[in-house]
């Protein structure tokens, strides 16, 4: 989220951050966004209530595209359908391999020579939407899931703002 926000400081950035929403009222990202003068919203508990509240807040803020960043909950099919083709997400693997969790550990255990991240359109299928961009990172001898995650995260911060900008311009 910070990388997406920092990109908006560039004159040529074609998007703005209208709202930062979280399912956790104490999320550090909400505090940071508030300090930056960005509108924030903490959703109530309960999936149906949370999604209805987030949907209403997004629409009230005039949001056209949702960029997920660190949102570790599955969205309902109904929510995805309401925003079809307008939700993007960053995922820490070279999709379509290693959907879901534990991506770095799985890539290392498989003996892969590289890992990376993917920006994709969110669909009802977990990590199954169209891949909009990827960045590759070599898996080094002695890598742990944590050391690989740190290198992939750097690429996520570089890739996501670039791909989001391209996405909103199409």
Distance between the termini: 21 Å
Number of helices: 6
Order of helices and strands: HEHEHEHEHEEH
Largest sheet: 4 strands, mixed
Mean pLDDT: 95
Outline: globular
Determine the structural class based on helices, strands and strand pairing: alpha/beta
Radius of gyration: 16 Å
Question: For the largest beta sheet, what order do the strands appear in spatially?
Answer: 3-4-5-6
- Flag low-confidence runs: none
Helix content: 25-40%
Number of strands: 6
In short:
The chain is an alpha/beta fold. It has 6 helices and 6 strands.
List key phrases describing it.
alpha/beta, globular, 4-stranded mixed beta sheet, single chain, two-stranded parallel ribbon, 170 residues, 6 helices
Describe this structure as you would to a colleague.
- Helices cover 39% and strands 18% of the residues.
- With 170 residues, the chain is of the alpha/beta class.
- The strands form two sheets. Strands 3-4-5-6 form a four-stranded mixed beta sheet, with helices on one face. It has a two-stranded parallel ribbon with strand order 1-2.
- Strand 1 (20-22), helix 2 and strand 2 form a beta-alpha-beta unit.
- The longest helix is centred in the C-terminal third of the chain and has 25 residues, at 145-169.
- The radius of gyration is 16 Å and the shape is globular.
- 27% of the residues are buried.
